[in-house]
């Protein structure tokens, strides 16, 4: 893999927009508006990528539909983090043979992180002849070219060249929400945790220029967006590959200085790079949510070293302790892996004790999933599946009890929340810390900030009412 970042020129991007116009004319000549369906798996970065794919499709004359049946184009934007996610994609991809049989001109594409793995590409070529094209995350910006070639030649196309990755500014984007927006500030990862496939499929770390990020954020705020989530595999290492002298904390501060009533979130942070400057910046600005997702993965220093995480248990706890000292109201979430190769019962209990010490608001919990091409996939792993499942269930029980206790402490208190939608007949809202609140009220409240008094809770969410004004 090359380590040199490619900055896509505006000339090259204009050429892609030219391909969009050719596709538009292709369909106009056939006197119809084609339909496109984009299905997304995995993380928020994939969600942001899908917004760009939809943007390019709309630029090409497609209308977006919510199902594969009858769609002229189906794009599956995939995740490679865990085996279960991959198998689900292959199963759903196989099921598309039926939609294509009923709509013979349907074009099917696979993209995302799975498309960056050679064994996946070969499997698609051999076993999924109904798939018309594959493109990796590095080639997302070339989707119009790939789509046009498929439409005009009828031949399968593969844009999967292995490279460090690219930055393409100015791609069309169809956002899922008018209230909330994803903003990618960087791509790729340099950490090479032994269990993780991301650096191999998304390339090395590369940061967008701060001026481009600030321009995007200003435009979003001017358009009425109330919540911006900054995205990166490791946002804390933002700017290290640039010569701007702007690190992630500086970028946060610059965005927070933009006029308007909005909230900034971000993910994901890596503990090795999350320090006092970041936490102090968060604490100082009312526009930066007091919410932190800081994956610890294991409570055992030995396991963390085997994972190549670049910190130990004590270092992690020191960071959390400082963050909570400057932000007492901090809502803290994390990722944890159960059953990493060689993890002993004692080391698992170290993870349990860390959870009990920190008392996370919520955890994203996973059983270790070996990824082909990563060092951990070749490590000796004597622990049985049954034992890993037992540990996983115990960890979830411990965390669920903590979450339920923390949520119960919200009852009777009032929080400023963004009302962001509906769930059946109830409004949904989010506290600054990202906790879900359901309450009664009219649709006119959607898109506004409001003070909400919490009246009830369970393990996963809260209920409330509009606060009475004294």
N-to-C CA distance? 63 Å
Average pLDDT rating: 95
Structurally, the number of domains stands at 3
Helix- and strand-based class?
alpha/beta
Alpha-carbon Rg, integer: 23 Å
* CATH class assignment of the largest domain: Alpha Beta
State the share of residues found in helices, binned by percent: 25-40%
Question: How are the strands ordered across the major sheet?
Answer: 3-2-4-5-6-7
CATH topology grouping of the largest domain: pyruvate-formate lyase- activating enzyme
Number of strands: 21
Largest sheet: 6 strands, parallel
In DSSP terms (H or I, runs of 4 or more residues), the helix count works out at 13
- Please name the CATH architecture of the largest domain: Alpha-Beta Horseshoe
Strand percentage, roughly?
Answer: 15-25%
């Amino acid at each position: 893999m090359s380590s040199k970042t490619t900055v896509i020129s505006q000339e090259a991007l204009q050429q892609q927009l030219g391909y969009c116009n050719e596709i538009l004319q292709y369909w106009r000549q056939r006197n119809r508006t084609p339909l496109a369906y984009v299905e997304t798996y995995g993380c928020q970065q994939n969600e942001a990528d899908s917004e760009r794919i939809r943007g390019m499709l709309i630029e090409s004359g497609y209308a977006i539909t919510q199902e594969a049946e009858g769609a002229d184009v189906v794009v599956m934007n995939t995740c490679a983090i865990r085996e279960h996610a991959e198998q689900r994609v292959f199963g759903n991809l196989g099921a598309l043979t039926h939609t294509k049989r009923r709509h013979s001109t349907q074009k099917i594409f696979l993209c995302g992180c799975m498309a960056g793995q050679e064994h996946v590409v070969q499997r698609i070529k051999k076993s999924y002849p109904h798939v018309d094209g594959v493109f990796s995350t590095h080639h997302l910006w070339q989707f119009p070219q790939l789509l046009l070639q498929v439409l005009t030649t009828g031949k399968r196309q593969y844009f999967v060249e292995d490279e460090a990755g690219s930055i393409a500014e100015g791609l069309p984007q169809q956002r899922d929400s008018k209230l909330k927006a994803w903003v990618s500030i960087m791509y790729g990862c340099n950490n090479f945790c032994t269990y993780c496939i991301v650096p191999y499929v998304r390339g090395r770390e590369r940061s967008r220029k701060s001026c481009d990020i600030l321009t995007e954020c200003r435009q979003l705020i001017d358009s009425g967006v109330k919540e911006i989530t900054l995205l990166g595999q490791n946002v804390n290492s933002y700017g290290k590959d640039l010569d701007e002298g702007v690190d992630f904390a500086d970028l946060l501060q610059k965005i927070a200085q933009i006029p308007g009533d909005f909230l900034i979130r971000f993910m994901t942070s890596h503990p090795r790079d999350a320090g006092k400057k970041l936490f102090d910046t968060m604490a100082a600005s009312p526009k930066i949510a007091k919410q932190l997702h800081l994956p610890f993965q294991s409570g055992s220093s030995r396991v963390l070293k085997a994972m190549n995480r670049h910190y130990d248990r004590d270092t992690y706890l020191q960071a959390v302790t400082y963050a909570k000292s400057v932000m007492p109201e901090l809502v803290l979430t994390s990722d944890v892996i159960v059953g990493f190769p060689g993890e002993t019962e004692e080391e698992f209990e170290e993870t349990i004790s860390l959870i009990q010490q920190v008392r996370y608001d919520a955890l994203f919990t996973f059983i270790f999933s070996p990824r082909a091409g990563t060092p951990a996939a070749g490590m000796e792993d004597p622990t049985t599946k049954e034992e890993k499942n037992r540990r996983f269930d115990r960890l979830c029980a411990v965390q669920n009890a903590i979450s339920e206790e923390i949520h119960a402490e919200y009852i009777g208190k009032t929080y400023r929340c963004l009302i962001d939608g509906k769930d059946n007949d109830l409004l949904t809202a989010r506290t600054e810390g990202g906790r879900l609140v359901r309450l009664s009220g009219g649709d006119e409240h959607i898109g506004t900030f409001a003070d909400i008094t919490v009246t009830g809770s369970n393990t996963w969410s809260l209920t409330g009412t509009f606060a009475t004004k004294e």
